[in-house]
Amino acid sequence: MDVKITTLAARPELAGALQEMPDTWPEFVLEDLVGWANFPRIAVEFPEFVLVATGPEGDVVARGYSVPFALEAPGRDGKLPEGGWDQVLLWAFSDLRHGRAPDTVSAIEIAVAAGSLGQGISGRMVAAMRENTRRLGFRELVAPVRPSAKHAEASAPMEEYARRTRPEDGLPVDPWLRVHVRAGGVIEAVAPVSMTVSGSLERWRAWTGLPFDAEGPVEVPGALVPVHCSPAHGYAVYVEPNVWVRHRA
Q1: According to CATH, what is the number of the domain 4-193+242-248?
Q2: N or C: where does the chain have the smaller number of CB atoms within 10 Å of the terminal CB?
């Protein structure tokens, strides 16, 4: 597919189409409170860091959100946070509020429209995000990656899963991690508490269609690890691990 990738700053008229693009996120993931409060602000506060890909007909076929933040700020000292996706969002908007100069860019989302999957667009979006990071004067792009096939092995430890490689070429077994490594990324660490979704059992039933009536772990379609269910207390909690990947811009 012939795809044109620009920033939202250059194409602000695509803001609505960008938000409405059909994606494949599981419903419950969208209930992460840090993301709920901060994700919509990215397009407003950081349009130069938002990428939009359009197809031959001008329709939006992919989007890429990233944010600048100060990784070398006191107390952070260049170490990618265990809090992953949630933490980097909080840092980015805290830095913006306090006038702290950013030194690194973090990917927040790269999503391909449901009808445009399997055409190599995701790899082009990773490359475009690296190029945009460099264009904006940064030397490094980091990404709290959500491995695309991990949901099929929810009980496997993320640390072990993320390090699996194919014997024929040494690339990661996971397809999305493989795209990042092919693009020059280096797997650095697991962010064990990258995203947290909590809710009543009623809400989890509505999100998933599952009964949530037994104490203990529940494997949920689309979840990278089991959800902890506590009927005695009336709630369930999902704590998602992601994988930190570093890219030189």
Answers
A1: 3.40.630.30
A2: N
